[in-house]
Amino acid sequence: MSKLALRGGEPVRARPFPSWPVFDGREEELVLEVVRSGRWWSYTLGEAAAAGDHAAPSSKVAAFQHRFAAAHGCPYGVACVNGTAALEIALRALGVGAGDEVIVPPYTFVATASAPMLIGATPVFCDIHLDTFNLDPRRLEEAITPRTRAIIPVHFAGLAADLDAITALAGRHGIPVIEDAAHGHGGSWNGRPLGSIGVAGAFSFQVSKNMTAGEGGMVITHDAALAELCESLIWAGRKPGRPWYEHYRLGWNYRLTELQAAILLAQLERLPAQTQRRQDNGGYLASRLREIPGIAPLAAPAYATGHAWHLFVFRFLAEPFGLSRAQFLRALTAEGIPASSGYAHPLYRNPLFQQPGLPLDYAGFAERCPASEQACAEAVWLEHRLLLGDRVDMDDIAAAVAKVYEHREELLA
Length: 413
Known about the structure:
Helix content is 35%, strand content 13%. By secondary structure, the chain is α/β, with parallel strands linked by helices.
């Protein structure tokens, strides 16, 4: 290979990877239907599930709730404004509130921990497993206290968490499990769709996610009463069939719009094919990268029967390269491969958790979560849009990483 691009050589790749979001005339068609109908806002209270696949839901939101939930293994779906709201709604519907504790991993987006805080509960961080970057069930028991009211495992990067162990332990303690499936669209655990295994699953449709309308969220569940309560919470505490200005509980106005639902219906149609492409390319790329010293893609446990590949993540082990991760990323980016280091630090190191007067002293969690500390020091992220390319694209990524390894001494000169 030629010398590194950072040192004046030709980059491995000059052409762009697939862009995101992916859209075509189908999104335009469905959005135009909404615009021309004049119905941009929907009354869907009581429509968490349609009567069946051949039903004609009264709105795009109702249709999307039904189709997304059904595609992810649940009879009930409640759409809302974003993934953070989905977690808030599920927690409140389960009775979680002030004084309660919710166990979450520290290697995740802040919403997993801020959603409990927004309803007065306290997040308690439980470390991840370094092989998967998911909640480590071996550490759960020590995180449970008499105040624990929920456990939120994250299917990080679209890789299923170890729900066998997590749900078994939660069941013994009578603690509900809410799946944070913000990365999990189209993924599966032991053949079951992510989000359908716990008492509820929470999804995000923010612009980076595997299907998107810019923003949006969804709670899915098998529990009809829980779905009805979630609906009430996003409809300002109303009840189906009761007068419009009659409110039964403190609720939000967290509704999804018809325009967003129209886009998401189109996004859902193409999700299966995109998921299959990500799975094919992700598995192939992982096999190529494992051949390079110092590169450790995340594990693929047998229970993770369908990886959604929201991110392609690998650990960069500095010793075989003799480089820092920052040096490696600069060199890799110069070769035409967009990559990042992900989270700068675990959640408990954020200023949010350093404020005085919090119920927990989060300063001690660094010692309790060594795997999360290491993950933040070693992780390299590739966006899922790269996996929507072809086999040549994956070969370019592997070739660029190999080139940096083979020419690593150039970076030390």
